[in-house]
Amino acid sequence: IEEQLYDAAKIDGAGELQQLWNITLPSLRSEMSVALVTTLIAALRVFDLVFVTTRGGPGNQTTVVAMVIYQNAFAINKVGYAAAIAVVLTLLILLISYAVLAVRMRFVAQEG
To answer: In the chain, how many domains are there?
Structure first.
């Protein structure tokens, strides 16, 4: 982020919070959208850490979507149901990724 933007904002009397809100966050919008999508996909796909440490327990307190898919496919032997959950999870990830991309493109179009 160009230092000139911050200098101009200080001259105009902008405080730290205003600089953050009006300069820093808009300048980092693209990077934040990529980080958001990547983190969201990783969070929805987490399986190994939960499986190794708690196996979804105690009870179902740490059960995640990937764990439900695994349990239905291999423990309960409902492979079709597990596949359906996986397809819905994939569609959810695609939908969220598309929404973030659409919002990002809207802001890019407004700026330029």
So the answer is: 1
Return d(Cα 47, Cα 82) in angstroms, integer: 14
Look-up of token digits 């196996």:
55
In this structure, is residue 21 part of a structural domain? no
Q: Where are the alpha helices (DSSP H) in the chain?
A: 3-11, 16-19, 25-27, 29-45, 48-53, 65-70, 79-111
At 27, list the tokens: 């300048």
Question: Would you give the DSSP letter of residue 63?
Answer: -
Domain extent, residue 96, equals: 30-111
Contact at 8 Å (CB) between 85 and 22? no
pLDDT digits (tens, 9 = 90+) for 65-102: 899 999 999 999 999 999 999 999 999 989 988 988 88
